[in-house]
Design brief:
161 residues; alpha+beta; five-stranded mixed β-sheet; two-stranded antiparallel sheet; 5 helices; 27% helix; 31% strand
Amino acid sequence: MTPSSWTLVIDDVLLPGANALLRMHAQDYRRLRDSLLMLARSGLRPAAPAAPLDRCDVAIVLRRPKRSLLDADGKYGAVKPLLDVLQPDRSYGRSIGRHRVRDVAPGLGLIRDDSDGDGDLDGCIRDLRVLQRVGDARIEVTVHDASSVERPHALTAGAAR
């Protein structure tokens, strides 16, 4: 039987906020993503499915010291490198001097992509929830397979009445 839920726990990591990620050099972002991938590989339970999930719900709890809590939009931006890690390996081009080089961003292969699938959109992530709690640095991720669940969008469900 294929599991319908996966959990990932990463201890002692504080994700930078959205503003810090925007100003981050590409090489520093790759290092962050790669270190998250190494930690995620050891913390994912059960193992990723053979094929990435096409539709999923993702819930993330960021435990942070009170002095480093993020604002509402910052916490959603902070999880971008984490969502990158949940995807399959992706190839991309980058520039080194005047040369264009092909590179691969490795991933767990748990979700198809990190695009929005809410409402009528065709992305993989149907629902993304990011919560913050005061405490020691810790990231808790739960991914639910939503491929067999059809639910109306909250904004369009009320309009149909």
